[in-house]
# Entry
Amino acid sequence: MSIQTLTDQLLSGHRRSLARLITYVENDHPDAAEALERLYPHTGQAHLIGITGAPGTGKSSLVNQLAQAYRRREQRVAVLAVDPTSPFSGGAILGDRIRMTELTGDPGVFIRSMASRGSLGGLARAVGDALKVLDAAGFDKILLETVGAGQSEVEIAKTAQTVIVVEAPGLGDDVQAIKAGILEIADIFVVNKADRPEAKRTAAALKMMLELGHAPAHHLLRHSLLASLDQTSPYEAAGPAWTIPVLPTVAINGQGLDEVVAAIEQHRQHLLDSGELALRDRARLIDELETTLQSELMRQVIARLPADVLAEMVARLDDRSLTPQAAAQKILAAVGLAG
Amino acid sequence: MTTNTQKIRVLVAKPGLDGHDRGAKVVARALRDAGLEVIYTGIRQTPDMIAESALQEDVDVIGLSILSGAHMALLPAVVDKLRQVGIDDVLIVAGGIIPEQDIVALKEAGVHAVFTPGTPMQSIIDFIKDNVPLNKA
# Structure
């Protein structure tokens, strides 16, 4: 089937074409780049909502409830759920659908599981492109669920427009709550399993942490090399800051979900009113450009690198006569890229 | 490094009402260890749910585990639903307590292989790797 047929079918709502195109971007299919070029003008409409948190906090159950809440509001929902790839075998168990059985069969819902395939930031390399495919397919809400995240898997903050960090009671004291990393990226905190005795203490620790102040998520930009070079536009949003809510839920029975849906809508409105949406989108796109540039450069280096040069470098690393840094310089010189 | 990286994607599902999912989980784990990506959907799946999940996940293989005795009703129904949603290029394998005389009929109905208790895990892995239609790269 031609790539134009596939993308045309996707744009007219054909679900199998949608599924196949996600496979294409995930597998670096030779036609994936053309597909994305065709679909890109149709993107930018969906609200990208990220859900992250430690394993077992209830991310998938929350996604299940959120999707149902949006369906009751007659919105079309896509779910992209990432689970980890084994670093040993390269295989994966993708088990997020188990919590979402009620959604299967609803034509207004599309769920896709994705293995992280070696990415360490809580997502998979192909997530950005898969989101574009889903966005072009016309979903109103895209729920992006990360792998069970520990402390530093913050890639979601660059990818989603609204980030929900799911916490559960009993996972740590109030020192955990002031550590850097995942707790810094929340736009909304959900304390799930709120029927458990420790839940109030967890919520209190998060609220205390929030009172100490918070940097807006688009400040992640400052870590991007390209963004620091781009002086053309300001990276500060105008208007009042967003107040991060801490919301108790019991995801298995839907308790507290209306409040979460309302907070997500308020955050979306805040992003629009303050101009922060444009900032986040730009942050994401610049980041994507940087990542793509890195992997493309790597691809070109490999394509041009004579096998004997690589063998020599490896041998010299082995006998400790060359540092990895010096070897990298020699390789760049060998492919004509030495500065 | 980004090269063309196709992985075998397998949907593992339990059609029908029996809740005995230990076998399905053990097979799922073995496939994971063999480098496959396993989408595990769990128990009490209807043929409609299985077909829809297979479509959304764009899988190469569907593994059906059934211990209830209802395989002659449910497995052909799953194959029919898959055809209805336009999926005719996936490998369909089944496992469970399935009598020898039923296997011939199931294969005629479109199930490519049936693995009964005692099948070495490696046989399942080898069958999948040897027969998977990798037509998406």
Observations:
- Residues 1-41 of chain A form one domain.
